[in-house]
Amino acid sequence: MKILSIYNKFLSRHPFFGTCLTSACGMGAGNLLCQTIMYPMTNHFDPLLFVTYALFGFFVSGPFVKVWWDALEFKIFKNPKQFLRPIKMMLLDQTTSPFILNSCFLYVLALYAGKSHSEAVDDALNRCIPVCLESYKVWPMVMILNFYVIPPHNRVLFTNLISILWTTYFTYMVSGTATQ
């Protein structure tokens, strides 16, 4: 619990930067875990892919969830006593976030794989719906728990702990190994 206390103190002093670091660690750890698990099958570890995941978490995913969840909490659903507020927050979050974050990340991964801008856009558009449908097996329930139980300052930490597992699966799913 001392680590959580240190984390919360850091987050209270640096909420935006702390969120970005938390997301970078979650996405990087998920990719690292997946590459470690897949290494016996592929005999390949790609450190730049790991860095790509971590940087996306730091520069895109972290800032996005910080701004978006603050908007949900303090601007869109301001009244904490509002009927079914966490469910409404989850529904709005899950009708927007998966499409935004997954399409952006699929685009980045396509560019990383050497595709041109137009090829990367096509790739992201073609893969986004299947990835989002997969995400609906996990994230709606996580987000209900997140908005009902987890205090706002620990939501990014909680979702990034789950994200380690999701990113591991996501890396496997988009790597092509899942279809081979």
Please describe the topology of this protein.
Elements: H1 2-13, H2 15-42, H3 47-76, H4 85-112, H5 117-135, H6 139-148, H7 155-174
Helix pairs in contact: 1-2, 2-3, 2-7, 3-4, 4-5, 4-6, 6-7
End-to-end Cα distance, whole Å, is 43 Å
Q: What's the β-strand tally? A: 0
User: Major sheet: size, sense and barrel closure?
Assistant: none
Rg for CA atoms: 17 Å
Strand portion, in percent? under 5%
Helical segment count: 7
Please provide a written account of the structure.
With 180 residues, the protein is mainly α. It contains seven helices and no strands.
Which key terms come to mind for this protein?
single chain, mainly alpha, 7 helices, 82% helix, globular, 180 residues
At a glance:
By secondary structure, the protein is mainly alpha-helical.
